[in-house]
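Q: What would this chain look like folded?
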Amino acid sequence: MKKRWQTLFFLSGVAAVILMLLTFDADWVRVREVLSQAGIWFPVIVLLWGGIYLMNACSFGLIINDGTGRGVPFCKVFQLTVSGYALNYVTPLGLMGGEPYRILELQRYVGGRKATSAVILYSMMHICSHFCFWLSAVALYVVLHFVADGYGLDLWMSVMLGVMTVVFVFVLWLFTLGYRMGFVVKVFSLLSRIPLLRKWSAGFLDRHRADMEEVDSQIAFLHSQRRAPFWWSLLLEYVARVVSCLEYWLLIGMLMPGFTFWDSILVMAFSSLFSNLLFFSPMQMGGYEGGMALAAGGVQVPGAYGLYTALVARLRQVVWTVIGVLIMKTGRKND
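A: My prediction, written as structure tokens:
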């Protein structure tokens, strides 16, 4: 990446972090109280997420290093993973900062087309793992709260869970089509039919059709010819989602001894689903806490515990966002 672009991404990240701290949705007295209550578990959770990012980096590395051309050092893959997520956290609309940054950084290793296809495919893998996680959480909810407890499904809950299942399965089917045949050209073809975007998207598609077709072919190549790395990458992303539930289990379990790891999976799944519906907000402000309170209430956890856990998780997110922004500069020196 050219130095001016790297500096621009870095300064944008610094500005976003400063703005995030100035508009933090809790006063600093409350922050100190929460950190004091969390005690040793806060640094433990920060380290836990270091392990989660390590799994994300392994998943990303399986996609990038396909045995052809120059390989990307794992330390660089890890740095791009953490920094990319940091930019996504502080960027409105999500994926609008971290993904371009990763592509520009990877270009000097593997070239523009492969960098673009690898980043797009990893983003698809990350999003797909979310839908797999949410779908399995629906099944877990049915098993734990209706089959095991002997309750029947009321009409409202049956409809809600049924709709969620249909939507998740449909989205996963769309991902399967995208993996098999690529989707970049199809997306821009679809955009070219939307009135407000027709002129721009059609022109962009005409100018870059060859590049987009190459990206689509590389996406399809990983799915069809490198099936073992493909499935391992998806599995690592899914396992990372499950491991992240330890954060809620440790925090809520400290306050509520009867809270199980299975309950933490449900809280994590439904709170992340709610907060991702507010993808347009930087760090999903408000939606994260609201989703946590609603999800905690759904498994008979007091709402106050849910809000406390959400605030600790938000502080952990701030720590890793700052780390991600800082290593944008230091990571380049260590290449």
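The longest helix spans residues 112-147.
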